[in-house]
Specification:
- Belongs to the SUI1 family.
- This protein has a domain of 82 residues: Translation Initiation Factor Eif1 (2-Layer Sandwich), CATH 3.30.780.10.
- 21% of the residues lie in helices and 22% in strands.
- It contains 2 helices and 5 strands; from the N terminus they run ββαββαβ.
- A hairpin with a 2-residue loop joins strand 3 and strand 4.
- It is α+β, with helices and mostly antiparallel strands and 118 residues long.
């Protein structure tokens, strides 16, 4: 038998307003986020294999800017390295331990990159 919904918390966190002057704000606008030039950004190249079944990945952290720019940077890195990967939670995840190659590519693009960890 299914659990009965008892209160507003069970509705998934919706908030209803009776204010006639209420204006819905849009979160995550790319206009609000600070867009830094590549030379002003300090990226970190991490090596990790935890939580991935022993598979090694290179994680790029520290990007500041719109999500669209992060996705484009991730696509460019994956294409130049010839590997797969993903972009989520403000990080670029590239399959394999290609930190040196990724750091060279990012430096050519004008980013400041630092090697972090092993």
């Amino acid at each position: 038998m299914a659990k009965k919904k008892l209160g507003l918390e069970d509705l998934g966190g919706f908030v209803f307003s009776t204010n006639d002057d209420f204006e819905e704000s849009v979160f995550g606008d790319s206009e609000d986020q600070e867009d830094l030039k590549p030379e002003d950004q300090n990226l970190e190249a991490h090596f990790s294999n935890k939580g991935r079944g022993g598979k090694t990945v290179t994680i790029i952290k520290g990007f500041t800017g719109p999500e669209e720019e992060l996705i484009l940077l991730g696509k460019m890195l994956k294409k130049k390295c010839g590997v797969g990967g993903s972009t989520k939670d403000g990080e670029i995840i590239i399959q394999g331990d290609d930190r040196e190659k990724i750091m060279q590519i990012l430096k050519k693009e004008g980013y400041n990159v630092k090697r972090v960890g092993g």
